[in-house]
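Chapter summary example.
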Amino acid sequence: MKKLLNAGLLITSLFGYLAWGKEQHAFLFQAEAEVLAKAVVDPMAVMHPFVVLPLLGQLILVVTLFQKEPSRWLSFLGMGCIGVIMAMLLLIGVMGMKVGIALSTVPFLVVGFFVVKANRRRV
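The structure predicted for these 123 residues follows.
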């Protein structure tokens, strides 16, 4: 179940929605493809916390998918790294009254809630 939830975090993180300027918009998976293509040519051009942290978080979640029992700390770390950009998108969506941006974070937040619930320590 934990692997499925981590895969859900990974997938839902790709559907965050960005919109800026006039008629410029992209889902995170589209923006990531552009960033990764640019990183091959000029790696220093993509060195920014809002780029590196979510990619690191996704990489960590991929690692948990190959573990026999996914590490709760790696799950939380991956979720936290991706959560930085998703929280920023939620904040932008709410403050700018951009419903599409705010709603694009909801699936990640819902799956994140279930990840926390599944990984909390039983006492």
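To summarize the output: The chain has one domain: 2-19+26-119.
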